[in-house]
Amino acid sequence: MRNETIFEFIRFALDDSQTKFSHLDDLDWDALYDFSEKQCITGVLYPGMEKLAKIKKPSMTVMGNWYARKDMIRELNEFMNQNAVTVYNQFKKDGLRGCILKGQGAAMLYPNPYSRNPGDIDIWVDGGRDEIVEYVNRVCPGQKQRYIHIDFPILKGVETEVHYTPSYMYAPWANRKLQKWFKEQLNEQFTHLVVLPDCSEEICIPTLSFNRVFMMSHMYKHLFSEGIGLRQLMDYYFLLKRGFTEAERKKDVATLKHLGMHKFATAVMYVLQEVFGLQDDLCIVKPNEKAGEFLLSEIMIAGNFGENDTRYGSRTKGESVAHRYFRLTRRNLHFISSYPSEAICEPLFRTWYFFWKLFNIK
Q1: Could you tell me the pLDDT band of residue 318, with boundaries at 50, 70 and 90?
Q2: From the centroid of its chain, how far is CA 81?
């Protein structure tokens, strides 16, 4: 099945007013369902299956799988909403400010907040690294510490990461600018209260203006580490659908340029238009076709967080440190012509991080 058919189906699913589908002859329901699962967007595309089934009915197996998956995603979102509140309140009761990143906060950007495939819980906690690590290990002893977060398995079966900072960049000069920007935005994020669906207590999630930069930086970082999928792009699509003023757009553009992400942002805008049909007036920067086609090709090959990318060797939980190092280094050579600073600095960062852990993680 051609990409054009897949992209038309995505736009068909997202637009309630769209009733015609031009690529019926190329439509393969089994392949379409498999694609939606690989990209982790099955729940969001379910309305498209319902609409299109009236024109070209899928097999009972496909319809059953899609229906069951949609219900499972809804139940997982209900479960994760409650868990996000529980984790937030854990820190609140002990006098620590928290802000839930991505995840259930991002789901609120969607017309149906129960349709987004939920992931783990990421909470940004206001405090220094040492204070946060000491607190986590007091509550859940012996946790694995990483550069920007520490594991916090306070809830059984729910992966929870406690962040000292929301994200980072591999080029040290760009990372310094990004961390400075996070600190400048901190107070506003830790006072932005919302109530998640079917919950009664308020929690903090990032503001729309913060997410327009933070989510971009999150995608940019993952492009050089694991890869990004359409779920991350879909989050950003629904973020931009919330709108912004011209003054906000200019501020965002200035920030993205300052952080060295402007070219990547032009590629993201191209993908959002090509795949999701984003309107021109909702693009924060002008789309770049060449950069966008390159990014879209990576997304289609790699899938959600690069789980389907086999171009540079096997990716398994049991792979050796050396195998992973050279696999990722080979992968990033692919990006040097497009994003030289991050592509070159990513393996250098991993080398530095190896020695940093020896002296900074007990």
Answers
A1: low
A2: 17
d(CA 210, CA 188): 9
**Separation of alpha carbons 62 and 203, rounded Å:** 38
Q: Residue 314: what pLDDT? A: 58
CA distance 315 to 312: 9
List the helix and strand counts (H, then E) for the chain. 14, 6
Nearest-angstrom CA–CA distance, 301 and 310:
9
Under 8 Å between Cβ of 164 and 148: yes
The neighbour count for residue 24, using CB atoms within 10 Å, is 12
Q: Is the pLDDT of residue 115 over 70?
A: yes
pLDDT given for residue 304 in this prediction: 63
Across the chain, what does the average pLDDT equal? 91
How far apart CA 316 and CA 206 sit, in angstroms, is 33
Segment 165-171 shows an average pLDDT of 95
Compute the Cα dihedral for 274, 279, 282, 285 and give only its sign: positive
Residues 6+ apart with CB under 8 A from 255: 181, 213
The one-character DSSP state at 303 is: -
The total number of residues shown for the chain amounts to 362
Lowest mean pLDDT among 195-209, 288-302, 323-337: 323-337
| Stated pTM of the model | 0.94
End-to-end Cα distance, the chain = 51
